[in-house]
């Protein structure tokens, strides 16, 4: 279903690259700073978020929320660990870091223990839905085009696997396998335009 | 963009074979983008999967509830109509479950000896007593889609019946250091799954004990083959193969869910006899298995009144169908309970009036029949003929211990097969019946407590506190049960004290779920093996598999919407007093739930069900028209009767089969008319005789004035023409 989100603000110009080596460096990099965001955002305050969703939208979110509710008494609560998934199921596209931020940066051990009810969840969802830089088809294709060394519309599956499993918010081997299932041709190459279509149409 | 949960590193760790060819920051940005989109993709698939599951499950349980309501209605007829009433007479025979009392008479009735196997028969020939080779031959034949001759069917069933009668209500099994036991859940007539389990795990043998936890039949199309194989192994390895009764081992349930139809279809001449014998066999199936005194295996579950000592003592075979309580505890017309005094609540499985029942202390115990020690056959020679002799001896010994002083051919009846209707049912029977209903029908719930199961219409939901109490009381550590389909074939709950195991893969649809079985050794730690029977679905990606199942669920849901269309239009119109023809999405969702009562997330499903919703409004008339379900060929002027027919498709079929007492598959016009009268009583609707006559006239009656039930049902099957995914 089409993601329900507020019009994203115009994407800011791409952030300046910190100076780094082109090739994978042998020297251990210092823990990278968070790549540039508007300087020093305050901690997320749910009360400051004005809800702009319509009543219909909210009813629908409640239904989805209930689908993920596993509490003993059907209390309409989910764990912190589920929060990201529920937002994504509702068409949002946060990174794990985005999710942790709206959750108030909980400790890892709290993620499957602490619970979230719908009233607390809603402003978080609203905030995430306003995020700039959601990325669209073109951004996505651009992001992959950099790996297209021969400029022929394909990228090496192995390289992509490597990137996804070792960089950014790393994926597990299983997740990578599932993502790439059926995408690589006999030479291990991926036509990235159809790859992107495949992901975006889920 | 921010950092993820894991620390991102610039250098690769292990995969030095591949170097990244682009600037690191670019690579990171690309990675983050793909990763978050992938996670969204997975989350959305997961939501679709849960929705689909909800749809299938709610329709399934609504069907069960329907069934129980129908049966309850019959019970009402039996109790409140005079014997002279024609409606009562149509159905009374299903309550006369044991017409012939004496074992010797039964033996005559089920005698296979006069049935000749013609030379033209090219299926397997069986010799008795049953051997391992015989069962193997049987399995091979079924793989080749051959059918076993009725003579052999009756022979196997007869032998099985004799064996089951001397088994206790609760099988007690020991697992020692060198042997692991295998536990399987629901099979539901899916022969491929049983064969797959045997292929992966090995066949039952002295070294390989098995427990099959009920629901062998119904829904799938090889219920009988599964039974014959399981019974075959039971006969060959009575100490190693253990069968528990499930809620589908019940002839009333079979009328609706396909087993009766399967048997009658495969055995036109002897089907009725086979069904009758199976009725008895089902009632004689043990109710539970206990492993090493620590693990309880039962089909449905437990309740706060579960008392295994009572279960062990009762005459289980009195309860041929568990759907209806014995007479003593049925309420009378004015709401007072007939007979019983102490029970707070004693009504039938439906209607939600169950409450807690205080468990009773012991009443008199009828002999040690259920405490026969099982002697091991391990130290006996394994030569074929000798082994079989020993099994015979074993059985003779058990019968002797059980108080059957004669050899089994001369056994006279005890009260063992008397009709529960004939004897004077007591309060004890009421309590016993409840024990069985709970064992076979219950489902676990996350909340504490024990409440009636409105969704299925039978049994209770029980909570973790009840699990602790019952397991504690009986000194058990784990409850293994089946009865509910699970995505991965198994699922723990109640702090891992309750384990559901379900062995019918692709139960709702190809790709809907995996099946699983349990291997358990001396340490009583369960290990799971999962599988999916269809080769096609193993090759599907997750997305394709979810999509396939989802399409099927939506088709089923559209059918449900279609059969309720006039109720739906009525409900929509309540929100449209000015008759504009459109209503808001919110009202659409509310009205739809009100009519269908399936508890589904309608707003989430909306994009899959409604093509066009302009500005949040739905043109409901058009939507209903566009549901694209064809109406079948015979056009009947009275549309309301057609709708009743669609809505009550299963009920109709069930009633037909009940009325068809000789199981011929044909009913006369008069019986057809009576069916409708019964149905309209049940639904509390008026259906005019003229409407029924018109309907009958549009049917194609055979020359002798009868119609074929199967053809009739087929002619009124709805077909979904919808082409959108």
From TrEMBL, chain A:
Composition-biased stretches (Basic and acidic residues): 1-22
Name of the molecule in the record: Myosin light chain 4
Native organism is: Poecilia formosa
Q: Where is this region: Disordered?
A: 1-47
Its cellular-component GO annotations read:
myosin II complex
Q: Which GO terms describe its molecular function?
A: calcium ion binding
Annotated EF-hand domain residues: 135-170
Domain of life where this protein originates: Eukaryota
> Would the keyword ATP-binding turn up in this protein's UniProt record?
no
Q: Which residues cross the membrane?
A: none
């Amino acid at each position: 279903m089409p993601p329900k989100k507020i019009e994203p603000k115009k994407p800011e110009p791409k952030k300046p690259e910190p100076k780094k080596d082109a090739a994978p460096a042998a020297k251990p990099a210092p823990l990278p700073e968070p790549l540039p965001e508007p300087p020093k955002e305050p901690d997320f305050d749910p009360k400051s978020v004005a809800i702009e969703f319509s009543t219909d939208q909210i009813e629908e979110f409640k239904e989805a929320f209930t689908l993920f509710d596993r509490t003993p008494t059907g209390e309409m609560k989910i764990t912190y660990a589920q929060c990201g998934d529920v937002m994504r199921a509702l068409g949002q596209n946060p990174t794990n870091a985005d999710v942790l931020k709206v959750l108030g940066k909980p400790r890892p051990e709290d993620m499957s223990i602490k619970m979230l009810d719908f009233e607390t969840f809603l402003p978080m969802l609203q905030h995430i839905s306003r995020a700039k830089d959601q990325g669209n088809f073109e951004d996505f294709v651009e992001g992959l085009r950099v790996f297209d060394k021969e400029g022929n519309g394909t990228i090496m599956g192995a390289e992509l696997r490597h990137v996804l499993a070792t960089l950014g918010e790393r994926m597990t081997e299983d997740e990578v396998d599932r993502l790439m299932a059926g995408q690589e041709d006999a030479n291990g190459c991926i036509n990235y335009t159809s790859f992107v279509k495949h992901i975006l149409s889920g | 963009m921010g950092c993820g949960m894991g620390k991102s590193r610039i250098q690769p760790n292990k995969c030095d074979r591949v170097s990244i060819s682009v600037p690191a920051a670019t690579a990171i940005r690309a990675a983050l983008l793909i990763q978050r989109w992938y996670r969204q993709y997975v989350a959305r698939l997961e939501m679709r999967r849960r929705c689909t599951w909800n749809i299938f499950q709610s329709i399934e349980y609504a069907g069960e509830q329907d069934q129980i309501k129908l049966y309850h209605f019959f019970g009402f007829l039996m109790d409140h109509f005079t014997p002279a009433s024609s409606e009562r007479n149509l159905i009374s025979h299903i309550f006369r479950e044991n017409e012939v009392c004496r074992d010797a008479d039964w033996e005559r009735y089920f005698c296979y000896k006069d049935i000749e196997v013609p030379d033209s028969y090219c299926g397997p020939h069986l010799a008795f007593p049953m051997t391992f080779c015989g069962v193997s031959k049987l399995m091979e034949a079924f793989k080749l889609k051959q059918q076993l001759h009725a003579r052999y069917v009756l022979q196997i069933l007869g032998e099985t019946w004799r064996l089951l009668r001397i088994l206790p209500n609760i099988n007690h099994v020991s697992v020692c250091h060198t042997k692991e036991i295998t536990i399987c859940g629901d099979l539901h007539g899916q022969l491929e799954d049983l064969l797959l389990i045997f292929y992966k795990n090995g066949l039952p043998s002295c070294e390989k004990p098995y427990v099959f936890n009920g629901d062998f039949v119904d829904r799938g199309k090889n219920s009988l083959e599964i039974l014959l194989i399981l019974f075959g192994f039971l006969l060959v390895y009575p100490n190693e193969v253990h069968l528990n009764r499930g809620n589908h081992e019940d002839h009333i349930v079979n009328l609706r869910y396909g087993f009766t139809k399967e048997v009658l279809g495969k055995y036109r001449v002897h089907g009725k006899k086979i069904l009758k014998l199976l009725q008895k066999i089902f009632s004689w199936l043990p109710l539970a298995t206990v492993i090493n005194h620590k693990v309880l295996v039962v089909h449905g579950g437990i309740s706060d009144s579960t008392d295994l000592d009572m279960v062990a003592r009762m005459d289980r075979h009195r309860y041929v169908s568990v759907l209806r309580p014995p007479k003593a505890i049925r309420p009378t017309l004015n709401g007072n309970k007939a007979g019983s005094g102490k029970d707070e609540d004693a009504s039938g499985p439906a209607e939600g009036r169950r409450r807690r029942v205080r468990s009773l202390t012991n009443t008199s115990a009828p002999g040690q029949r259920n405490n026969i020690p099982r002697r091991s056959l391990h130290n006996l020679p394994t030569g074929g003929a000798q082994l079989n002799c020993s099994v015979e001896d074993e059985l003779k010994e058990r019968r002797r211990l059980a108080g059957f002083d004669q050899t089994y051919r001369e056994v006279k009846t005890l009260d063992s097969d008397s009709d529960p209707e004939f004897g004077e049912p007591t309060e004890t029977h009421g309590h016993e019946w409840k024990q069985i209903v709970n064992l076979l029908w219950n489902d676990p719930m996350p909340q504490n407590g024990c409440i009636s199961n409105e969704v299925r219409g039978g049994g209770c939901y029980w909570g973790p506190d009840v699990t602790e109490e019952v397991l504690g009381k009986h000194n058990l550590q784990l409850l293994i049960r089946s009865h509910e389909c699970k995505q991965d074939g198994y699922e723990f709950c109640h702090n891992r004290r309750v384990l559901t195991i379900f062995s019918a893969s692709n139960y709702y649809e190809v790709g809907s779920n995996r099946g699983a079985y349990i291997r358990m050794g001396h340490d009583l730690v369960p290990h799971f093996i999962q599988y999916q029977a269809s080769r096609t679905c193993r090759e599907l990606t997750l997305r394709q598999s979810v999509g396939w199942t989802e399409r099927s669920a939506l088709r089923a849901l559209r059918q449900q919407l279609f059969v309720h269309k006039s109720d739906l239009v009525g409900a929509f119109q309540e929100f449209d007093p000015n008759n504009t023809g459109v209503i808001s999405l919110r009202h659409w969702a509310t009205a739809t739930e009100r009519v269908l009562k399936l508890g589904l997330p309608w707003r989430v499903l909306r994009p899959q069900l409604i093509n066009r919703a302009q500005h949040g409004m739905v043109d409901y008339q058009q939507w209903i028209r566009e549901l694209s379900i064809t109406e079948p060929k015979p056009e009947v002027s009275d549309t309301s009767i057609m709708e009743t027919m669609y809505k009550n498709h299963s009920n109709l079929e069930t009633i037909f089969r009940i009325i068809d007492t000789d199981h011929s598959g044909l009913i006369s016009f008069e019986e057809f008319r009576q069916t409708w009268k019964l149905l309209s009583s049940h639904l509390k609707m008026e259906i005019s005789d003229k409407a029924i006559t018109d309907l009958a006239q549009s049917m194609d009656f055979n020359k002798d004035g009868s119609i074929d039930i199967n053809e009739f049902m087929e002619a009124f099957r709805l077909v979904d023409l919808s082409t959108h995914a």
